[in-house]
Amino acid sequence: MHTNTQLRALLLTLSLSLLAACGGMGDVAYPGEVGPPVNAGVAPDGIGVTPGGVQDIEYAREQVASGSLPPSESITVEGLLSQHDLPAGGAACEDLLCLRPALGATRSADTGDLTYWVYLGMKSGLTDFQRPPLDLTIVMDRSGSMGGDMRETEQAVVNMLEQLRPDDRVSIVAFNDRRRVVFEHGPLTDLASVSRDVLSVEARGSWEIESALEQALTIQRAAGDSPERLRRIVVLSCGYPDASASSPFAQLVADAARERIGFTFLGILLGYDATLGALLGQTPGGSYHYVQDLQSTREFFGADFDTMMSPLAYDLSMRLDLGAGFTIDRAFGIPGDSVGAPSASLDVATAFASRRGGGIVVRLQQSGAFDQELGQVGLSYTPESAFGWTSEHSEDKPLSLPAEAATDVFWGTDTVQKAVVLVESAEGMRDALSLRESGSRDDALARMAQVVEGLRSAATELDDEGLRTELAFAEALQALM
Hints:
Rossmann fold; 2 domains
């Protein structure tokens, strides 16, 4: 463990430069909604489960809404999946988390060959979800670069305070080149007074996050490590830290994770940072969000606050043991893994409670004679103790295809069909943007045409409002190319 002096010495190298100027949205260039899809409500069969890491593609949506092409890296599969209702279905779960896989088969548009898919959905035994008591430290940027965005930051903090309960404890640290404790750690007994203090914070000075993060970690440590309470640091900033693996910031986040202190970063009206998203996706308790305007900030910490603060389990491992007829081609939705390299073991640092139900999707290739019995998938994880489960969990589920899947398209559930459509859409948009960035405009347009047609067909077949939202987004992106 680092002492405060050692940690300060490490963090003194954190002189961060803004990756993009902070500022409001431009004119909206298409009528689609910026924000979660319309059907992003409570999962119909209880609380949903979603991997940590990047929780949205809001930066890409905001860029398209303002008439600009987003960077290809800003569209991630895990971000898109996390914004949709993908209920795992299946039998009721009597543990904190249970694995509920579903299978599908599609035909390649290029070759006509069948491709097989496994949707690794999870559901929770928390049918009557209630967030455990929370120790929360809010770190808010008040540097001069926040001059045009202080309202968004202050409003987000006030919205968080409005969601707290009498058994929660909170502290607020504002920073520029110095740190200021706006509220000492403890129960929130006078919301109006503390809100006025937050709303009076002015943006000025230079940007130095190191001492504020150090103090936040010190506050969390002093609050104690009761296994019945959640612990979380939430940072709202207009600047991104150096999130490379060897950086002091990465060291601090890792130290916090080892002590069961989660870390959430909210980029306020800032460019997307893939390195930060990957780091938080690979760190137990980590999550990353983008906030694009004042209205979305007001809505951000509403019904989803409790789930956003609630990791359910850590160090999840999903093991695919396939028979001789199939091999793993790609894995999608693994936080921090944009490549999706094939692996028999898929590791997820954190599973969060969700009003929706994100998931992980694996694409298979047939490597031998078709076998209805694909093999099995296993799940193991360490539960978050605040929910009352303390023993490590392990289970195995068989994977079986019907005979007709040997020769024809097959969907085990509507959920696996929608999940595959979202995976292919995210990958297609990312590919198209990469082609456009390299100057291959015709190829980019052709790739986007595939995405639009796939979304249009699936939205009609499934009569899904969320897919219609994505279709409008894809059409707007196509028009900008």
